[in-house]
Write a structure and sequence with these properties.
Elements: E1 2-7, E2 10-16, H1 20-33, E3 39-40, E4 43-44, E5 47-48, E6 51-52, H2 62-76, E7 80-81, E8 97-102, E9 108-111, E10 119-126, E11 134-137, E12 144-146, E13 152-156, E14 161-164, E15 173-182
Antiparallel strand pairs: 1-2, 2-13, 3-6, 4-5, 7-15, 8-15, 9-14, 10-13, 10-15, 11-12, 11-14
Length: 190
Protein backbone atom coordinates (compact mmCIF):
# COMPACT_ATOMS: atom_id res chain seq x y z
CA UNK A 1 0.00 0.00 0.00
CA UNK A 2 1.29 3.44 -0.95
CA UNK A 3 0.08 6.86 0.04
CA UNK A 4 1.25 9.66 -2.21
CA UNK A 5 1.00 13.23 -0.97
CA UNK A 6 1.32 16.05 -3.48
CA UNK A 7 3.32 18.68 -1.63
CA UNK A 8 4.06 21.92 -3.41
CA UNK A 9 5.56 20.90 -6.73
CA UNK A 10 6.69 17.49 -5.56
CA UNK A 11 5.44 14.49 -3.64
CA UNK A 12 5.99 12.51 -0.48
CA UNK A 13 5.59 8.72 -0.48
CA UNK A 14 4.42 6.76 2.57
CA UNK A 15 4.53 2.96 2.54
CA UNK A 16 5.43 -0.03 4.68
CA UNK A 17 8.51 -2.13 4.16
CA UNK A 18 7.55 -5.81 3.87
CA UNK A 19 8.02 -8.17 6.81
CA UNK A 20 9.42 -5.79 9.46
CA UNK A 21 9.34 -8.65 12.01
CA UNK A 22 12.01 -10.37 9.90
CA UNK A 23 14.62 -7.56 10.06
CA UNK A 24 13.68 -4.82 12.59
CA UNK A 25 14.41 -6.84 15.79
CA UNK A 26 17.91 -7.77 14.61
CA UNK A 27 18.61 -4.22 13.44
CA UNK A 28 17.51 -2.88 16.84
CA UNK A 29 19.64 -5.46 18.62
CA UNK A 30 22.72 -4.52 16.59
CA UNK A 31 22.10 -0.80 17.07
CA UNK A 32 21.81 -1.16 20.86
CA UNK A 33 24.77 -3.55 21.05
CA UNK A 34 26.97 -1.04 19.18
CA UNK A 35 25.77 2.27 20.61
CA UNK A 36 29.14 2.81 22.26
CA UNK A 37 30.69 2.90 18.76
CA UNK A 38 28.37 5.65 17.44
CA UNK A 39 29.79 8.82 15.97
CA UNK A 40 27.57 11.84 16.50
CA UNK A 41 26.96 14.94 14.43
CA UNK A 42 25.64 17.62 16.77
CA UNK A 43 23.67 18.25 19.94
CA UNK A 44 20.29 19.93 19.98
CA UNK A 45 18.59 20.72 23.29
CA UNK A 46 21.09 18.52 25.13
CA UNK A 47 20.76 15.37 23.01
CA UNK A 48 22.76 13.99 20.12
CA UNK A 49 20.72 14.51 16.97
CA UNK A 50 22.27 11.91 14.62
CA UNK A 51 24.01 8.65 15.55
CA UNK A 52 26.21 7.10 12.86
CA UNK A 53 27.41 3.49 12.72
CA UNK A 54 29.33 1.66 9.97
CA UNK A 55 27.15 -0.66 7.88
CA UNK A 56 29.10 -3.75 8.97
CA UNK A 57 27.77 -3.20 12.54
CA UNK A 58 24.15 -2.81 11.38
CA UNK A 59 23.95 -4.82 8.13
CA UNK A 60 20.15 -5.09 8.36
CA UNK A 61 20.00 -1.35 7.52
CA UNK A 62 20.56 -2.43 3.92
CA UNK A 63 17.04 -3.91 3.80
CA UNK A 64 15.02 -0.69 4.23
CA UNK A 65 17.54 1.42 2.29
CA UNK A 66 17.49 -0.99 -0.66
CA UNK A 67 13.69 -1.08 -0.58
CA UNK A 68 13.59 2.73 -0.48
CA UNK A 69 15.91 2.90 -3.49
CA UNK A 70 13.61 0.60 -5.47
CA UNK A 71 10.51 2.61 -4.52
CA UNK A 72 12.32 5.85 -5.32
CA UNK A 73 13.21 4.60 -8.79
CA UNK A 74 9.59 3.55 -9.38
CA UNK A 75 7.68 6.45 -7.80
CA UNK A 76 10.06 9.34 -8.51
CA UNK A 77 11.37 8.04 -11.87
CA UNK A 78 14.98 8.62 -10.88
CA UNK A 79 18.21 6.71 -11.27
CA UNK A 80 19.30 6.17 -7.67
CA UNK A 81 22.01 4.31 -5.85
CA UNK A 82 22.65 3.34 -2.27
CA UNK A 83 25.98 3.97 -0.70
CA UNK A 84 27.03 3.01 2.78
CA UNK A 85 30.31 4.88 3.14
CA UNK A 86 30.91 8.65 3.35
CA UNK A 87 31.12 10.34 -0.06
CA UNK A 88 34.13 12.36 1.06
CA UNK A 89 37.32 11.31 2.81
CA UNK A 90 37.54 13.73 5.71
CA UNK A 91 37.26 13.56 9.45
CA UNK A 92 33.96 15.46 9.37
CA UNK A 93 32.40 13.13 6.76
CA UNK A 94 29.49 11.08 7.97
CA UNK A 95 27.77 7.98 6.66
CA UNK A 96 24.77 8.66 4.38
CA UNK A 97 22.49 6.91 6.89
CA UNK A 98 22.01 7.55 10.59
CA UNK A 99 19.83 6.73 13.56
CA UNK A 100 17.73 9.23 15.52
CA UNK A 101 16.74 8.35 19.04
CA UNK A 102 14.21 10.58 20.74
CA UNK A 103 13.37 10.13 24.39
CA UNK A 104 10.02 11.20 25.87
CA UNK A 105 9.76 15.00 25.74
CA UNK A 106 12.28 15.37 22.89
CA UNK A 107 11.67 16.58 19.33
CA UNK A 108 13.60 17.43 16.16
CA UNK A 109 13.43 20.92 14.65
CA UNK A 110 12.92 21.86 11.02
CA UNK A 111 15.79 20.91 8.72
CA UNK A 112 16.51 19.52 5.26
CA UNK A 113 18.99 17.06 3.68
CA UNK A 114 19.79 18.95 0.50
CA UNK A 115 23.57 18.46 0.32
CA UNK A 116 24.38 16.04 -2.55
CA UNK A 117 21.30 13.84 -2.01
CA UNK A 118 18.82 12.83 -4.72
CA UNK A 119 16.12 11.56 -2.34
CA UNK A 120 15.80 11.27 1.44
CA UNK A 121 13.95 8.83 3.63
CA UNK A 122 13.13 7.69 7.11
CA UNK A 123 11.96 4.33 8.42
CA UNK A 124 10.68 3.76 11.93
CA UNK A 125 12.26 1.01 14.02
CA UNK A 126 10.74 1.58 17.45
CA UNK A 127 7.79 3.83 18.27
CA UNK A 128 4.53 3.94 20.15
CA UNK A 129 1.39 5.99 19.72
CA UNK A 130 2.13 9.69 20.42
CA UNK A 131 5.88 9.24 19.92
CA UNK A 132 6.03 12.23 17.56
CA UNK A 133 4.78 12.66 14.00
CA UNK A 134 7.11 13.74 11.24
CA UNK A 135 5.88 16.98 9.74
CA UNK A 136 6.71 18.83 6.53
CA UNK A 137 6.70 22.61 6.29
CA UNK A 138 6.46 24.69 3.14
CA UNK A 139 5.63 28.39 3.33
CA UNK A 140 2.09 29.03 2.11
CA UNK A 141 0.85 25.46 2.69
CA UNK A 142 -0.64 23.79 5.77
CA UNK A 143 1.88 21.48 7.42
CA UNK A 144 1.63 17.82 6.51
CA UNK A 145 2.00 15.32 9.38
CA UNK A 146 2.56 11.57 9.14
CA UNK A 147 2.32 9.28 12.16
CA UNK A 148 5.23 6.88 12.77
CA UNK A 149 4.71 3.10 12.81
CA UNK A 150 7.32 0.36 12.97
CA UNK A 151 8.30 -0.55 9.41
CA UNK A 152 6.80 2.58 7.86
CA UNK A 153 8.94 4.27 5.19
CA UNK A 154 8.61 7.89 4.14
CA UNK A 155 10.44 9.13 1.02
CA UNK A 156 10.77 12.80 0.12
CA UNK A 157 12.81 15.34 -1.78
CA UNK A 158 15.95 16.26 0.20
CA UNK A 159 15.19 20.00 0.03
CA UNK A 160 11.87 19.57 1.87
CA UNK A 161 11.99 21.10 5.34
CA UNK A 162 10.76 18.66 7.95
CA UNK A 163 10.90 18.04 11.68
CA UNK A 164 9.51 15.68 14.31
CA UNK A 165 6.94 16.61 16.95
CA UNK A 166 7.55 16.04 20.67
CA UNK A 167 7.68 12.41 21.76
CA UNK A 168 4.69 12.31 24.12
CA UNK A 169 4.90 8.55 24.68
CA UNK A 170 6.61 6.86 27.61
CA UNK A 171 9.28 5.15 25.44
CA UNK A 172 12.11 6.21 23.11
CA UNK A 173 11.38 6.54 19.39
CA UNK A 174 14.11 5.22 17.08
CA UNK A 175 14.26 5.83 13.36
CA UNK A 176 16.75 5.20 10.57
CA UNK A 177 17.18 8.13 8.20
CA UNK A 178 19.19 8.13 5.00
CA UNK A 179 19.99 9.85 1.75
CA UNK A 180 19.89 8.11 -1.61
CA UNK A 181 22.35 9.34 -4.20
CA UNK A 182 21.93 10.05 -7.90
CA UNK A 183 23.31 7.47 -10.30
CA UNK A 184 25.91 7.95 -11.58
CA UNK A 185 27.44 9.55 -8.52
CA UNK A 186 28.62 13.15 -8.94
CA UNK A 187 32.34 13.83 -8.72
CA UNK A 188 33.02 15.00 -5.17
CA UNK A 189 35.93 17.02 -3.86
CA UNK A 190 37.07 18.69 -7.09
Amino acid sequence: MFKEYLWGKSKIIETRIPDPDDWVPELLQNFHKNQDKCVFSHKISGRWENSYLPIDLVPQARIPIRYARDIGVEKFSRSLCMIYQPLEESESSKFPFWFNSSMPGESTGLHDHAHLAALSGVVYLSCLSKSGNIYFHLDGLPELEIMPEVGKLILFEPWMRHGVRINQSSHPRLSLAFNLQPFPLPVVGL
